[in-house]
Design a protein that fits this description.
alpha/beta, 7-stranded parallel β-sheet, binds NADP nicotinamide-adenine-dinucleotide phosphate
Length: 384
């Protein structure tokens, strides 16, 4: 073959195969971009809430990597949903770091978070990956808030509480603050969570001896269990609410700057008596062997699909200021675990799309009061 015809041969060969290369590399790029836009780790994926979130994520077309310490359960779940999985406990630092290197953010679902959160937050700081979790524990929110500077330096967002506790109540708090910018006092209440999951009961049982908490003059302040009760008009029903140490005691302060915060929930009268008794017997219930016994008695799982479909949540909030001004609003939404899964994934999608603020953030501080309105089936009314 002459030099010229050899050149022609190579040029025509290149022209023939170029489109194939072009489309192949375009397809690879597109696949990479799709993966990049969906790369997050669900740790504790085999728990009740982790499984629910995994299922909802797959229904949205997201492809999280599943993780946890129980190899059999995590593998089984991953195979069911055709997802990748990693198995490690939180003190296996090398494996934890390697898993984080593959993703953009973590949705941490392994609670009680007062036991599990610190190691995961530290790993996220080390690996410069965004941290979210579904905690409702005041101590965990405060520990994360104390990491604000480090998170900003690492360029990551640390947002605990992306579930039912605290997305809807945090958004309601922010909404009330927007309505009354001079507010100095905030009361929030919720009703109708339905059946509680294993992890929620385990976390509540673990904290049973610790009493209540409110925020007073900007400081988290201990109060006796079931410290205050008040009648709360949720709109469709009026119920007696009782103070509990709910996550908003920590978070609503960061979202609104309001220095005095109380959170109420509705419990059956028999539970109210038990809560009051815990003021005197809490120390006993907190003892190791009794805790062990109580924890073992908690049934696995949580509400099934039919129970969740029937359930709903009612919320109420009131803000007032020193001049006697007062605003009141209500919110209704889906059942608590359904709301947790949707809220957590809505936030994950925002983070993966680059819509985030580095540092410690609360849901409403980062995304505003209307974040909750993105959850289908949610409605809000201003009462006064
Ligand atoms: N914010 C909210 O509104 C909201 C909503 C739902 C749940 N939650 C909270 O989320 C947590 C999970 O609830 P759940 O009902 O899904 O719990 P669950 O069914 O008991 O599952 C707990 C999960 O966490 C893992 N885990 C527990 N301790 C761990 C540890 N020390 N190291 C590593 N993994 C650990 C478990 O792994 P193993 O299987 O290996 O034990 C399991 O995967 C609870 O703290 C609950 O209060 C909050």
């Amino acid at each position: 073959m002459s030099r010229i015809s050899s050149q022609k041969y190579w040029i025509s060969l290149l022209l023939a195969i170029y489109p194939a290369f072009y489309f192949a590399s375009f397809a690879a790029l597109r696949e990479n971009l799709c993966n990049m836009a969906n790369t997050f780790l669900i740790y504790g994926a085999n728990g009740y809430t982790g499984e629910l979130i995994t299922r909802f994520a797959v229904e949205r077309g997201m492809t999280p990597i599943l993780a946890g310490r129980n190899a059999i359960a995590v593998e089984e779940l991953a195979k069911k949903h055709h997802l990748e999985y990693r198995v490690f406990s939180l003190d296996e630092t090398d494996r934890l770091d390697a898993a984080l290197q593959e993703v953009d953010m973590v949705l941490h679902c392994a609670g009680p978070f007062s036991i599990t959160s610190r190691l995961m937050v530290e790993a996220c700081l080390r690996n410069k990956k965004h941290y979210t979790d579904i905690t409702g524990e005041i101590a965990v929110f405060e520990a994360c808030a104390a990491m604000d500077k480090k998170a900003k330096e690492a360029g990551i967002m640390v947002m605990p509480g992306v579930g039912f506790d605290v997305v809807p109540s945090d958004c309601l708090a922010r909404h009330l603050k927007d309505r009354l910018p001079t507010a100095t006092n905030l009361s929030l209440a919720f009703y109708g969570m339905g059946r509680l999951s294993h992890g929620t009961q385990a976390t509540m049982t673990m904290n049973v001896g610790k009493g209540g908490a409110i925020r007073k003059d900007g400081k988290i302040t201990g109060v006796p269990a079931a410290w205050k009760t008040r009648e709360i008009d949720f709109g469709e029903v009026t119920k007696t609410g009782v103070t509990i140490p709910w996550g908003d005691v920590a978070t609503a302060f960061y979202s609104t700057g309001i220095p005095n915060i109380e959170v109420f929930t509705v419990v059956p009268p028999s539970n109210l008596k038990m809560m009051k008794a815990a003021r005197y017997l809490g120390w006993l219930l907190a003892m190791g062997p009794i805790q062990g016994y109580l924890q073992k008695k908690i049934p696995a799982g949580g509400p099934n699909d039919a129970e969740r479909a029937k359930g709903k949540t009612l919320m109420w909030g009131e803000a007032s200021d020193l001049n006697g001004n007062r605003v009141e609003s209500r919110l209704q939404g889906p059942e608590g675990y359904t709301m947790t899964a949707i809220a957590a994934l809505n936030i994950a999608e925002k983070i993966l799309a680059g819509n985030l603020k580095p540092g410690y953030q609360t849901p409403a501080k980062a995304y505003g009061a209307d974040l909750v309105m993105e959850i289908e089936g949610t409605a809000r009314q201003d009462v006064t």
